């Protein structure tokens, strides 16, 4: 008989359900309870770099917008540093790098204001192109989905990004590239997520 | 001593699959293509951190955090407590745990919930706390009621509390649901049964904890949460900066 390995199993995931807002965004559920809700300010007022807005919708397999999604963003600052004790470097006072947004109940639109992240060193000394990590939960999603937002004005960095390059179907890489536009002097990147079917967004097992 | 490195791979056969036809909403909300596997980089190993400036001490007490002065919600008074551990059995300290639930009658305080059971004027239904240095957390609340939902026409969710946990890296991010020992609705719930393995389901069922119960006051349930473990980097090329 072999020796027993003393590892625990991860708690299995369950859907966040349709009322996820009660716990994670109670104001949107319709009541005011906490002194401050978390996740509404990713970069803070002191962050250096280009101020941008990222927005989009999440579309289901029938082509309809999903209106009860919660998304969380995790990103580095404009110098490519994460606000985490294990990542070398410093971030600006008030820079969290983490944000949480929900889709509008009527339209399904979501969006957050932040700064454009810098490139981050990846594995084995390969530089990763600027990107924002995105985690998506909702009713009907049993395990949160991970994807990445890249930027269409970073053509050169995207071409050598080690993560984009492991996606063997080049056409699918395009689903991760947000499109830059300008609106009333503001830089806006559009990033629609397609859950299922034609042009399905690439999701990662991270 | 070696540097803590990437997370153990998630066991996707232990977790529910994306497509689980009896949970009907998953049919159009599940990707059809396979997930692309990534080895962890700094983007996955790091994650947000939270501190006591972010939350208030009352936030973990659902019996008082939305009640009018001198009043309290109607329902079975319970304590939910436990530890957040990783797969190596090590505590996960200072991590944010958030919970939300229906009231004792199975009604959520949410503008989209139209179930005819009434709102409790003294119950909000959400709480949050940070684990201590030993990974320990606790909440006080009322036991939520079962409620009906439009899946099969006579489907009822077992009593449950939704739980969200962060861990130390973005790859550990987890949302799950806690169920209560002995609830006969657990076996027939299509959401519970998205999880293929009975042993995995058992990991989400909190045990009645008589030792933590406060006599003549509040009954207790114990619910430990396990997040992904991390391995030491051993012989691999280390991440830049580690």
Question: Summary?
Answer:
The complex is a heterodimer of chains A (206) and B (242). Chain A is mainly beta and 206 residues long. Chain A has helices at 20-24, 26-29, 155-159, 170-173; strands at 51-59, 69-74, 98-102, 109-115, 120-121, 127-128, 132-138, 145-151, 177-183, 186-190, 193-194, 204-205.
N/C terminus separation of chain A: 34 Å
Main sheet summary of chain A: 9 strands, mixed
- The whole-angstrom Rg of chain B is 19 Å
Strand content of chain B: 25-35%
Number of strands of chain A: 12
Key attributes of the depicted protein:
heterodimer, A: 206 residues, mainly beta, nine-stranded mixed beta sheet, two-stranded antiparallel sheet, 4 helices, 30% strand, B: 242 residues, 4% helix, globular
Structural commentary:
- The complex is a heterodimer of chains A (206) and B (242).
- By secondary structure, chain A is mainly β.
- Helix content of chain A is 9%, strand content 30%.
- In chain B, strands 3, 4, 5, 6, 9, 10, 11, 12 and 13 form a nine-stranded mixed β-sheet that branches.
- The relative contact order of chain B is 0.24.
- Classes of the chains: A mainly beta (206), B mainly beta (242).
- At the A-B interface, α1, β5, β7 and β12 of A face β2, α1, β4, β10 and α2 of B.
- β12 of chain A pairs parallel with β2 of chain B, so a sheet runs across the interface.
How is this fold's topology laid out?
The complex is a heterodimer of chains A (206) and B (242).
Chain A: H1 20-24, H2 26-29, E1 51-59, E2 69-74, E3 98-102, E4 109-115, E5 120-121, E6 127-128, E7 132-138, E8 145-151, H3 155-159, H4 170-173, E9 177-183, E10 186-190, E11 193-194, E12 204-205
Parallel strand pairs in A: 1-10, 1-11, 8-9
Antiparallel strand pairs in A: 1-4, 2-3, 2-7, 5-6, 7-8, 9-10
Chain B: E1 4-7, E2 36-37, H1 42-45, E3 77-86, E4 96-100, E5 126-130, E6 136-142, E7 147-149, E8 155-157, E9 160-165, E10 174-180, H2 198-202, E11 205-208, E12 219-222, E13 225-227, E14 230-232
Parallel strand pairs in B: 3-12, 3-13, 10-11
Antiparallel strand pairs in B: 1-14, 3-6, 4-5, 4-9, 7-8, 9-10, 11-12
């Amino acid at each position: 008989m072999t020796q027993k390995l003393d590892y625990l199993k991860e708690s299995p995931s369950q859907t966040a359900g349709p009322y996820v807002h009660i716990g994670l965004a109670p104001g949107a559920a319709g009541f005011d309870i906490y002194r401050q809700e978390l996740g509404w300010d990713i970069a803070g007022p002191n962050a250096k770099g280009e101020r941008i807005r990222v927005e989009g919708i999440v579309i289901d397999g029938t082509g309809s917008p999903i209106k009860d999604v919660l998304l969380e963003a995790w990103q580095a600052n404009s110098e490519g540093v994460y606000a985490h004790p294990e990542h070398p470097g410093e971030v600006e006072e008030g820079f969290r790098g983490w944000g949480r947004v929900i889709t509008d109940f009527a339209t399904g639109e979501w969006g957050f204001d932040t700064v454009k992240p810098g490139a981050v060193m990846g594995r084995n000394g390969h530089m990763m192109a600027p990107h924002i990590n995105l985690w998506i939960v909702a009713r009907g999603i049993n395990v949160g989905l991970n994807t990445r937002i890249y930027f269409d004005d970073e053509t050169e960095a995207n071409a050598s990004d080690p993560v984009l390059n492991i996606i063997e179907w080049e056409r699918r890489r395009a689903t991760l590239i947000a499109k830059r536009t300008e609106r009333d002097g503001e830089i806006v990147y559009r990033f629609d997520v397609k859950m299922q079917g034609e042009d399905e967004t690439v999701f990662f097992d991270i | 001593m070696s540097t803590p490195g990437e997370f153990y791979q998630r066991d996707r056969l232990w977790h529910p699959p994306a497509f689980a036809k009896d949970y009907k909403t998953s049919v159009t909300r599940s990707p059809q293509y396979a997930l692309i596997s990534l080895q962890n980089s700094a983007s996955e190993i790091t994650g947000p951190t939270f501190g006591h400036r972010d939350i208030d001490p009352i936030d973990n007490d659902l019996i008082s955090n939305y009640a009018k002065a001198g009043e309290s919600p109607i329902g079975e008074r319970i304590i939910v407590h436990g530890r957040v551990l990783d797969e190596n059995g090590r505590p996960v300290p200072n991590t944010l745990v958030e919970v939300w639930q229906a009231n004792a009658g199975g009604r959520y305080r949410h503008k989209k919930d139209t179930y005819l059971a009434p709102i409790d004027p003294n119950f909000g239904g959400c709480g949050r706390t940070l684990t201590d240095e030993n990974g320990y957390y606790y909440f006080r609340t009322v036991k939520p009621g079962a409620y009906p939902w439009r899946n099969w026409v006579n489907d009822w969710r077992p009593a449950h509390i939704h739980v969200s946990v962060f861990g130390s890296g973005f790859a550990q991010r987890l949302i799950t649901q806690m169920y209560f020992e002995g609830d006969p609705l657990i076996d027939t719930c299509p959401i519970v049964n998205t999880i293929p393995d009975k042993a995995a389901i058992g990991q989400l069922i909190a045990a009645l904890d008589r030792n933590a119960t406060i006599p003549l006051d509040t009954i207790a349930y114990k619910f430990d949460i396990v997040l992904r473990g991390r391995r030491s980097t051993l012989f691999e090329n280390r991440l830049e900066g580690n």
